[in-house]
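Backbone-to-sequence.
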């Protein structure tokens, strides 16, 4: 066996000799020869002379010069064309990668486990030089983006070290001439479904001062290449059968339809002749035994990948015309399927004879009934004269009495294949004709994807349609002179239609994004979502009761008030109709997220903002923390929607509808005064803009909120809840939350640095506000200044309480859109900029688009990375144990109050001490003169040892439940006096000295089933 080492070189005169010395001295597995192909990519510093001299001295070195510099991709492409080894390995000339790692790269290939092996710089390895933070961040971002579109889990897509089977590599067309070859090759390998491994390598990277050549521009090119080869299939050098089969692999409905026609006629042990890349194979599984065969080596590689870890699949090279290839299968199969293959076999008669004689005669003795042979040809291949092949009936699928029915598979053959076939067990209808009625369906199924595409002809200087070039595609006929392009304006109905189409595309993309965030993670970023999902599912059963026994030692036990009543009411249909309440809750939040995007677009559209869809899309570019917040199963997502509706009425100065929206806030959100806090700075901004101070809208918003609280279904307990929220915010503002009780991260302020990192685009736009003010002068309308004042006020509030970000971001987008509307009023952007300076317009447009795409991708990757590592529901199995061994309604000690949402979701059959907010527990202590909250907090923070009998006496409980990760922090639990009754990877349940006590001797209780 031979290894081809491919080395592109450009201006490396000081490293060229040392590079080849190390490459030629690098250790290789036993029995593996090497050839080194060095491609000089137009070096101008004397590298060429050094390489020529070295190539003359060492016969295993091939030297190939390029007359001019064409890029790394072009050099690799040249080297691949000259490779004669069994494997190809890429080696850069800068010595950042150590040739001593060759054995690690080649091991999976030599073992037959892989088709390609990547050397990762970010997997744990022996060493790695510490480099620029931003260079590493760019690499990881490109890797994550490539993984997103290729569905791989690589850790380093931009690595140089790649070892690939030459047979695979030579059939992949490489189009890029630059560093984009890395992501291009990865995308094509992924679409080819090859087996890819990663191994850790050592890395000694150099800096730009030392000669590093890749730059930030290559990062943007890589982004373009990732998107291009996600959309375009360019997997094989020529459009042969390989590419056609790859195209058909995405025709899922066609493949399923073809499999449905075949499946009823097959037995348990199947041989497929001409399986290709397994388009039909995957549809016909599972089977007791499935033999997939083909003659093409590339197809066999793909089939072997499909057969990995599937013992029932066997991959063989079988020529249908060679009877010897069927010898090993005699007696092992009971069905043969041969679809769209027979017409390509030169001697179809011999192939059919092998099917019927060599396999059918030796079917397994324990199988009853005739052996099945299924063959099918396309309707529009072969000669015009079609005839049916006299053959026995095809197994089970006949009509009554064995007469072929309509569901029979059609069989068409060339005239030379029309022969009588021997049947192993003759039947009355042994020579029945198999109908050809379904043949045309194959032709129609493929032709249905061919759509005529009209091509408009260009205009000449007079505005008339030019003549069509010979051989050019036909387009729409232009029968009359067209208007000059400078005077052509779209009709009045075209603009709304285009805008609606753009809005639809935005909503589709937002739906895909938020669906990935919701359903792509096992757990929830905000664990309170478990509570809301289960509460909405149980809402109809207990209605408006003030009893909430799941928190036995808080005021919620007897004084419960649903502060998010409307939110839960709207979620009820989703939570009750879904298979799991959590799934229904996620679907509900997804609908709310889309409603938020649509509402923002409508608000901007109705205020006369040009390009309202573009500004609405800014909502998705404002940072990962904001995307995470609006993807939570929390009531603030509904409140964002109400905020945008309220802003619409504030812009119209409609105080009546503003009051109604304020009323809805009181029924749907924890803080009912949000709209009033928006309306007040809004009115001040209008007053600064020259209008009279409008006090009616702020008063209506405040009055609507107070009225909503007064007539709330849970009045007067809603006022008590509002008081609790005020206490929480006050403690958080004073910085006392962490000293007294852990009240949640949302009450903590943003530092300046954390705000800049969380909202980079928002920060840049804030810095640009003075420039916008200077440009606008006095042209800004009062409503614009009102929206800007409200946005700035809520941004300032976000710096104090980080949870208010969900209001600051959409308010700022509205203000920004209104500023742009006023700045461009009376200014023909298309005439003054696009037509007079087209190249500048394209450059600026492309720059803005790339910048916004970068901000958006950064936010999406942050959000997805934050949610991908979340644990699933941690108390599911422990709750099943409690339901089986504890009495319904029995109180269980939970030291950590923020575990309650998950406990309530899975273990709602039991009761607990406290949940959602410890302030309600403190209030109960003040009312009843107890000190339960302090005791629980001191034990939780390790200021008091964990005392089981004390907990049992204080709370009347027999058991305590803890997360497994928390249980390790208590050394007392390792004592034999503590016994766990249940334990898994996520949770543990311990017995306290309660009414029944632990077992004698302190031995652990039986965990049970």
């Amino acid at each position: 066996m031979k290894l081809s080492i491919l080395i592109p070189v450009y201006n490396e005169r000081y490293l060229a000799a040392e590079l080849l010395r190390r490459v030629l001295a690098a250790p290789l597995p036993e029995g593996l020869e090497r050839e080194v192909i060095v491609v000089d990519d137009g070096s101008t510093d004397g590298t060429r002379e050094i390489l020529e001299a070295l190539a003359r001295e060492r016969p295993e070195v091939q030297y190939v010069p390029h007359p001019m510099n064409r890029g790394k991709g072009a050099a690799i492409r040249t080297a691949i064309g000259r490779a004669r080894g069994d494997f190809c390995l890429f080696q850069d000339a800068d010595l950042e990668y150590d040739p001593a790692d060759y054995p690690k790269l080649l091991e999976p290939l030599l073992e037959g486990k892989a088709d390609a092996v990547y050397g990762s710089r970010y997997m744990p390895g022996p060493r790695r030089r510490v480099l620029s933070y931003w260079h590493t961040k760019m690499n990881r971002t490109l890797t994550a983006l490539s993984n997103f579109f290729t569905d791989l889990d690589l850790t380093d897509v931009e690595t140089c070290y790649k070892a690939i089977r030459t047979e695979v590599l030579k059939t992949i067309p490489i189009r890029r001439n630059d560093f984009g070859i890395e992501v291009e090759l990865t995308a094509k390998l992924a679409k080819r479904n090859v087996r890819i491994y990663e191994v850790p390598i050592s890395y000694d990277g150099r800096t730009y001062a030392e000669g590093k050549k890749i730059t930030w521009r290559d990062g943007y090119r890589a982004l373009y290449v990732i998107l291009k080869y996600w959309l375009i299939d360019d997997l094989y050098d020529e459009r042969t059968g390989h590419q056609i089969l790859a195209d058909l692999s995405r025709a899922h409905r066609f493949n399923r339809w073809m499999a449905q026609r075949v499946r009823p006629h097959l037995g348990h042990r199947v041989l497929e002749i001409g399986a290709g890349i397994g388009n039909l194979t995957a549809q016909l599984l599972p089977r007791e035994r499935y033999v997939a065969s083909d003659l093409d080596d590339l197809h066999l590689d793909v089939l072997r990948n499909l057969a990995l870890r599937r013992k029932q699949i066997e991959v063989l090279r079988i020529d249908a015309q060679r009877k010897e290839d069927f010898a090993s299968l005699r007696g092992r199969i009971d069905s043969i399927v041969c679809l769209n293959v027979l017409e390509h076999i030169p001697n179809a008669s011999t192939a059919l004879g092998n099917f019927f004689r060599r396999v059918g005669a030796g079917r397994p003795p324990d199988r009853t009934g005739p052996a099945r042979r299924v063959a099918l040809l396309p309707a529009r291949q072969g000669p015009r004269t079609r005839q049916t092949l006299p053959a026995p009936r095809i197994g089970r699928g006949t009509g009554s009495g064995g007469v072929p029915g309509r569901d029979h598979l059609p069989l068409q053959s060339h005239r030379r294949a029309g022969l009588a076939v021997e049947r192993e067990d003759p039947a009355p209808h042994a020579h029945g004709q198999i109908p050809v009625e379904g043949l045309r369906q194959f032709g129609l199924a493929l032709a249905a994807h061919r759509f005529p595409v009209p091509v408009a002809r260009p205009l000449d200087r007079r505005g008339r349609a030019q003549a069509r070039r010979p051989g050019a595609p036909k387009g729409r006929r232009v029968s009359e002179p067209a208007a000059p392009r400078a005077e052509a304006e779209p009709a009045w109905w075209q603009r709304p239609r285009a805008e609606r189409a753009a809005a639809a595309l935005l909503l589709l993309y937002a739906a895909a994004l938020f669906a990935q965030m919701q359903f792509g993670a096992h757990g929830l970023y905000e664990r309170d979502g478990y509570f809301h999902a289960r509460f909405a599912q149980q809402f109809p059963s207990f209605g408006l009761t003030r009893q909430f026994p799941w928190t036995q030692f808080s005021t919620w036990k007897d004084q419960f008030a649903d502060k998010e009543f409307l939110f839960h009411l709207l979620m009820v249909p989703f939570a009750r109709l879904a298979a799991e309440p959590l799934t229904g809750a996620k679907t509900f939040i997804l609908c709310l997220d889309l409603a938020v995007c649509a509402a923002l677009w409508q608000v901007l559209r109705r205020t006369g903002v040009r390009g309202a869809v573009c500004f609405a899309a800014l909502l998705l570019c404002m940072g990962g923390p904001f995307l995470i917040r609006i993807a939570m199963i929390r009531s603030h997502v509904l409140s964002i929607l109400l905020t945008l509706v309220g802003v619409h009425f504030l812009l119209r100065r409609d105080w009546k509808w503003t009051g109604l929206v304020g009323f809805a806030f009181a029924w749907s959100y924890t803080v009912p005064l949000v709209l009033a806090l928006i309306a007040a700075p809004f009115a001040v901004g209008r007053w600064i803009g020259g209008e009279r101070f409008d006090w009616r809208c702020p008063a209506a918003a405040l009055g609507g909120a107070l009225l909503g609280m007064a007539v709330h279904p849970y009045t007067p307990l809603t006022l008590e809840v509002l008081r609790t929220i005020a206490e929480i915010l006050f403690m958080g503002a004073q910085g006392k939350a962490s000293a007294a009780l852990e009240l949640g991260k949302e009450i903590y302020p943003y530092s300046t640095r954390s705000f800049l990192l969380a909202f980079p685009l928002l920060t840049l736009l804030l810095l640009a506000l003075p420039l916008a003010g200077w440009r606008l002068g006095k042209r800004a309308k009062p409503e614009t200044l009102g929206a800007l004042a409200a946005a700035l006020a809520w941004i300032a509030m976000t710096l104090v309480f980080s949870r208010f970000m969900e209001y600051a971001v959409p308010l700022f987008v509205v203000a920004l859109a209104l500023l742009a509307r006023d700045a461009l009023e009376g200014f023909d952007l298309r005439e003054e900029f696009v037509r007079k300076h087209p190249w500048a317009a394209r450059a600026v447009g492309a720059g803005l688009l790339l910048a916004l795409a970068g901000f958006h991708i950064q936010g999406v990757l942050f959000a997805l990375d934050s949610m991908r590592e979340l644990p699933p529901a941690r108390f599911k199995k422990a709750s099943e144990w409690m339901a089986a061994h504890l009495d319904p309604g029995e109180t269980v000690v939970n030291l950590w109050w923020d575990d309650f949402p998950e406990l309530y979701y899975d273990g709602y059959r039991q009761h607990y001490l406290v949940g959602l907010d410890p302030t309600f527990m403190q209030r109960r202590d003040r009312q009843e003169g107890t000190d339960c909250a302090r005791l629980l907090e001191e034990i939780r923070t390790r200021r008091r040892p964990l005392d089981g009998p004390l907990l049992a006496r204080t709370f009347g409980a027999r058991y305590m439940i803890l997360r497994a990760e928390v249980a390790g922090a208590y050394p007392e639990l390792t004592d034999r006096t503590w016994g766990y009754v249940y334990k898994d990877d996520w949770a543990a349940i311990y017995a306290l000295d309660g009414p029944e006590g632990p077992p004698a001797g302190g031995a652990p209780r039986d965990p049970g089933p």
